[in-house]
C-alpha cells in the first residue's frame, strides 16, 4: 500500500467560475435553512448562523461592510444572551 494522500483545501476564490455552480445548490440549501431559523426565532441555532455568516464573509468580504458585519454578529450574540437571561430557571 502506498502512503495516504492528504486532502488539500481549495479556496472558492481560486476555483474557475464554472466550478462555482457545483457549490451554489448546497449553499442555497444552507442559506434557506438558516433563513428559516431566523424567521422562526430559533435562538438556540444562532451560533450556527453566526459561524455561517463569518465563513461567507471570509470568502466574500465585499458582501457587507466591516461595520455591518460586526453589527450583525454582535446582534446575534446579544439575542442569544437575552434569550438565556430571560429563560425560566
TrEMBL record:
Any single GO CC term annotated in Swiss-Prot or TrEMBL for this entry: shelterin complex
A Pfam family hit: TINF2_N
GO terms assigned for molecular function: telomeric DNA binding
Occurrences of domain TERF1-interacting nuclear factor 2 N-terminal (ranges): 35-83
Domain of life: Eukaryota
GO biological process terms held by the UniProt record: regulation of telomere maintenance via telomere lengthening; telomere capping
Protein name: TERF1-interacting nuclear factor 2 N-terminal domain-containing protein
Amino acid at each position: 500500500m502506498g502512503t495516504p494522500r492528504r486532502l488539500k483545501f481549495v479556496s472558492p476564490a481560486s476555483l474557475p467560475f464554472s466550478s462555482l455552480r457545483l457549490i451554489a445548490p448546497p449553499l442555497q440549501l444552507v442559506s434557506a435553512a438558516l433563513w428559516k431559523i431566523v424567521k422562526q426565532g430559533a435562538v438556540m441555532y444562532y451560533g450556527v448562523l453566526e459561524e455561517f455568516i463569518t465563513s461567507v464573509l471570509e470568502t466574500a468580504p465585499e458582501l457587507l461592510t466591516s461595520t455591518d458585519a460586526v453589527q450583525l454578529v454582535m446582534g446575534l450574540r446579544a439575542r442569544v444572551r437575552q434569550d438565556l437571561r430571560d429563560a425560566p430557571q
